[in-house]
């Protein structure tokens, strides 16, 4: 069963089409990069997967649960790190995490234990009483990742999680997420426009102006696009005048 | 992140099989939402002080000045002549609920703009339950503010029958729910925080002044029959009367019916508005990302 199955999804904002007939799937315990320039439709796709918007055309399933029809079951299996900062700056780290735990029906000792374990995981042990406002951008992101993992999801969605961070923070966060895929078997959909975050062993889904232009393993996408590297392949696929879809079988 | 330090086996992240949500889980969620609202309120001391100062200014200054001008005849639930301060106290309680309800809608617009709202909306609990929890959280904070005001008013010599302080609680709760539901509905229609000034001018002030909060309806009727009809069509009128009667251990059934009906109506509309498949949320351009 696919961790995430997106089938024929389209979405419009009034007359403006943001996504057009997008289909792809993600296997469990894989790291998939959703590549696209600004305006490609990545955030819209995330809003549909997380049921902030309703899927009006096509379907989205998370471990077989339709996001529109069984949103509760689907959302229990997914952790989300949004592009915009979503911590409550007036609350402490622990209060932010406790709030999220409560939103998933986790309370009391169990919540405290999970918070302590996850703060250690993201290298933020001992910071639980700090106000979110006092954290750096990278530290906030780490807390948001811990928060997304609190309810033990099987699929993790990260929307431009490293935007605005310095190189060291970016590398650290990326390494943490890749390790989670390896050690915990969590499927990850990592949306970015930063091509240096892609590794050869990854799967990629490339969006251009709401259209899916390539999907598959990095090596296969590079080969199919006739480029020498994923950077070149992405440049070619993202060009306005580019046509056709590089269909790659995983 | 300075270094990608990871324990060999990450504790507590193994994907789990999920049990079905039961009452306990719903209560945990409700408690979490209420606690967060209370904590936010405690962290924003200015909000608490301003919410208290506003009705106190009306009580200490406005009421003292207008006491001689605005006589109040014996009207139910009062059995004797009452001081003007006593008359406007239920209206000032309503004012706190009105401002607080609108403020909670303001916080929802803020949360939506800043992205915090998404953490609530992506919870696996049903959307209606999350919105009701958010309302209950807002009402809890509102009621705390009302009682803080009543304590100060008590020391000022404005006193209701002792049992009234208990009897008024359900009326405050229901009125608070109605106003929070209205605020929530309005928040779903507001695209940007800047548009909230319009709510102030078109909802809060007309709602407050076109009601018996400051002067009895019979006086309004004498002054302007049209305004009287507007007052009768204003749900806030019934919230004020419900609170006023409750202070004296009485139930104004018409007010109770109108407030309960409006609460259900506003709540249903807010739930529909926040439903991604039917409401206005889905029609809005995402403000937090690219496309």
Automatic annotation (TrEMBL), chain B:
One GO molecular-function entry: ABC-type transporter activity
One Pfam family per UniProt: ABC2_membrane
Membrane-related topology note: Multi-pass membrane protein
Cellular compartments annotated: Cell inner membrane; Membrane
Chain ranges of the ABC transmembrane type-2 domain: 46-277
Domain of life: Bacteria
InterPro entries on file: ABC2_TM, ABC2_TM_bact-type, ABC_2_transport, Alc_ABC_transptr_permease, T7SS_ABC-Transporter
Transmembrane segments: 56-75, 87-110, 131-157, 163-186, 198-218, 251-274
GO terms for cellular component: ATP-binding cassette (ABC) transporter complex
Keywords on record: Cell membrane, Membrane, Transmembrane, Transmembrane helix, Transport
Signal peptide boundaries: none
Family: Belongs to the ABC-2 integral membrane protein family.
NCBIfam families to which the protein is assigned, alphabetical: phenyl_ABC_PedC
Protein name: Transport permease protein
Organism of derivation: Mesorhizobium temperatum
């Amino acid at each position: 069963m696919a961790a995430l199955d997106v089938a024929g999804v389209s979405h419009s904002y009034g007359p403006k089409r943001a996504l057009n007939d997008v289909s792809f799937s993600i296997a469990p315990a894989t790291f998939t990069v959703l590549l696209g320039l600004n305006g490609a439709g990545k955030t819209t796709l995330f809003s549909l997967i997380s049921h902030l918007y309703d899927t009006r055309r096509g379907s989205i399933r998370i471990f077989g649960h339709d996001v529109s029809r069984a949103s509760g079951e689907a959302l229990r299996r997914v952790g989300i790190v949004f592009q915009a900062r979503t911590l409550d700056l007036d609350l402490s780290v622990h209060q932010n995490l406790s709030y999220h735990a409560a939103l998933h029906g986790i309370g009391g000792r169990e919540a405290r234990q999970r918070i302590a374990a996850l703060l250690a995981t993201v290298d933020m042990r001992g910071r639980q009483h700090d106000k979110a406002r006092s954290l750096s951008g990278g530290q906030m992101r780490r807390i948001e990742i811990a928060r997304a993992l609190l309810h033990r999801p099987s699929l993790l969605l990260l929307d431009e999680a490293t935007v605005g961070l310095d190189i060291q923070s970016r590398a650290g966060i990326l390494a943490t997420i890749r390790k989670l895929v390896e050690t915990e078997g969590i499927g990850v959909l990592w949306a970015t426009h930063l091509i240096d975050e892609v590794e050869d062993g990854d799967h990629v889904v490339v969006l251009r102006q709401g259209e899916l232009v390539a999907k598959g393993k990095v090596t296969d996408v590079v080969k199919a696009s006739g480029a020498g590297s994923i950077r070149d392949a992405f440049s070619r696929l993202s060009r306005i005048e580019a046509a056709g879809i590089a269909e790659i079988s995983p | 992140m300075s270094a990608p330090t990871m324990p060999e086996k990450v504790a507590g992240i193994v994907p789990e099989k999920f049990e079905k949500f039961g009452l306990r889980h719903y209560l945990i969620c409700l408690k979490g939402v209420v606690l967060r609202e209370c904590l936010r309120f405690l962290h924003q001391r200015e909000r608490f002080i301003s919410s208290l100062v506003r009705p106190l200014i009306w009580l200490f200054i406005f009421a003292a000045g207008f006491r001689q001008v605005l006589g109040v005849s014996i009207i139910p639930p009062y059995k004797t002549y009452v001081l003007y301060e006593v008359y406007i106290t239920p209206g000032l309680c309503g004012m706190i609920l009105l401002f607080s309800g609108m403020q909670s809608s303001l916080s929802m617009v803020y949360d939506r703009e800043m992205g915090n709202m998404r953490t609530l909306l992506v919870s696996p609990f049903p959307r209606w339950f999350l919105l009701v929890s958010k309302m209950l959280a807002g009402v809890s904070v509102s009621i705390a503010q009302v009682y803080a005001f009543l304590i100060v008013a008590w020391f000022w010599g404005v006193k209701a029958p002792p049992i009234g302080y208990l009897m008024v609680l359900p009326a405050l709760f229901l009125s608070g729910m109605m106003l929070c539901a209205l605020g929530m509905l309005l928040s779903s229609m507001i695209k940007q925080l800047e548009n909230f000034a319009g709510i102030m001018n078109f909802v809060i002030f007309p709602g407050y002044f076109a009601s018996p909060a400051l002067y009895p309806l019979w006086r309004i009727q004498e002054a302007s029959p049209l305004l009287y009809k507007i007052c009768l069509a204003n749900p806030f009128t019934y919230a004020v009367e419900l609170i006023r009667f409750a202070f004296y251990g009485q139930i104004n059934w018409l007010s109770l019916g109108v407030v309960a009906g409006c609460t259900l109506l506003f709540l249903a509309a807010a739930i529909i508005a926040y439903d991604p498949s039917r409401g206005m949320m889905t029609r809005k351009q995402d403000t937090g990302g690219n496309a």
